[in-house]
Write a structure and sequence with these properties.
This protein is of the alpha+beta class. It is 29% helix and 28% strand. It folds into two domains: 209 residues, 3-Layer(bba) Sandwich (FAD/NAD(P)-binding domain); 188 residues, no CATH class. The protein is globular.
Length: 428
């Protein structure tokens, strides 16, 4: 049986942060990282957009402002991100305020998907240089917390401390581990929305502020804006019983040679359920499966011009005249989003988009595309045993899938916070 002092499951920003902190402060300790994917995963890989202003990315139920700022400072000191300039923000903020909308001013860095991949390569190479063992394509099957043994699809591994650091796709996996450990958790919050794609000229704010954060009434907000070399992509999810569905997402490259003049962003509605619903995740999965059914196994896309007229989009109508750009997610199925999305959620999203069009005129150009669904599954809320995100004896859970973060910088901060707890525990 293999043995390691610290086993980290997940190679996204949360897991990487924990590995760097532990290997820096206690180089004598052995650290092993495993990931079920064949490549290092997480937000660093997808567009690599980082926010350095509280509370963006920090769930307020587990982070105070002072604590988040302290860990943000440590995160920024390590990553040394190139902070982007913002211009003319006050103009858009005044327009927003007049109609009851808030525009948040966030310190941001953007490396792009290509820059993120380069960063991952550098970070993992440095960890391996330090002696951290990284095993990709290795899937954790289960743990025996009493004997501190993890079983993977390759081996059994004994550990002194276990850090579970999943991203959003690890939502179900976290729930199964929490159930195994007997740790109470809630799962009643989910984000449902659309990904909007348009020409940069129709969303002029991106020339002044790369990822503008607008907060609308009815728990609706913009999220994850991409421009210059922007693309819409689909991400596959599989339910516990084997049914597949897709959520859309957006990313961009830093390479200006790939510039296409398009921008995309999510418009999300946060839905918080009360009893008797057992799982927000199950609700979101049902929406994703229904959309896949209507889209022939793919996400649905619809032009704003068609949506306003109350008719479905058709492939033949996706080019020419006012519909003057091709969708970057060409595999999506033209259709009618209103048949798939819950009416209350869609009404809030459409109301917010109309308000956004008042603040940034042009975003609702007839050619603008809405892709559905965009689903964010990071609503697990474990009952933590202490302030370092420990859930059981020598077991910590961090990252978006464990409800400690919503984005790269908060995930990295949660990795540092867990590492602080691990160092204290291993000294006992």
């Amino acid at each position: 049986m293999d043995r390691t002092d610290v086993l980290i499951v997940g190679t996204g920003p949360a897991g990487l942060a924990a590995a760097f902190e532990i290997s820096s402060r206690a180089p004598r300790l052995t650290v092993a990282m495993i990931d079920r994917e064949k490549f290092s995963t997480g937000g660093l890989r997808n567009d690599c957009k980082m926010n350095f202003t509280y509370p963006i990315g920090f769930p307020v139920d587990v982070w105070t402002e002072d604590l988040a700022k302290a860990y943000l400072a440590r995160t920024e000191e390590f990553l040394k991100p190139p902070i982007m300039d913002r211009k003319n923000v006050s103009v858009y903020a005044r327009r927003a305020e007049k109609i009851g909308v808030r525009l948040l001013e966030i310190r941001q860095a953007h490396l792009g998907t290509d820059g993120g991949l380069a960063l991952i390569k550098d970070l993992t190479a440095e960890l391996m240089r330090r002696g951290v063992a990284i095993s990709l394509g290795e899937n954790l099957l289960g743990i025996d917390a009493a004997s501190r043994v993890a079983t993977t699809d390759r081996r059994e591994l004994s550990w002194g401390a276990l850090v579970v650091a999943p991203g959003r796709s690890g939502f179900s996996f976290v729930q199964s581990l929490l159930t195994t450990l007997g740790v109470p958790f809630t799962d009643n919050v989910v984000d449902i929305g659309v990904r909007v794609e348009t020409r940069e000229g129709n969303y002029q704010i991106v020339k002044d502020y790369y990822d503008p954060k607008f907060i609308f009434p009815e728990k609706t907000r913009t999220f994850c804006t991409n421009s210059r070399t922007a693309r819409v992509v689909q991400e596959k999810y599989v339910t516990d019983d084997g049914r597949a569905y897709y959520s859309v997402n957006g990313h961009a490259y830093a390479d200006e040679k790939m510039r296409n003049g398009l921008a995309n962003f999510a418009m999300l509605r946060t839905v918080e359920f009360t009893e008797p619903l057992a799982s927000g995740q199950r609700f979101a999965e049902m929406l994703g499966i229904q959309a896949a059914l209507m889209g022939g196994g793919r996400p649905i896309m619809q032009r704003i011009g068609d949506f306003r007229l109350g008719k479905r989009s058709k492939l033949s109508g996706f080019s020419g005249d006012l519909y003057d750009f091709e969708p970057t997610l060409a595999s999506a199925t033209p259709g009618d989003i209103s048949l798939a999305a819950p009416s209350k959620i869609l009404r809030a999203i459409w109301k917010s988009l109309k308000a956004l069009d008042t603040i940034v005129p042009g975003v609702l150009h007839p050619s603008t595309i809405m892709y559905y669904p965009e689903i964010k599954l990071y609503a697990n809320r474990p009952t933590f045993a202490d302030g370092s995100f420990r859930v059981a004896d020598r077991v910590w859970m961090i990252g978006d899938g464990a409800g400690t973060s919503r984005g790269i910088t908060a995930a990295w901060s949660s990795g540092l916070r867990a590492a602080d707890g691990i160092m204290d525990a291993l000294r006992d």
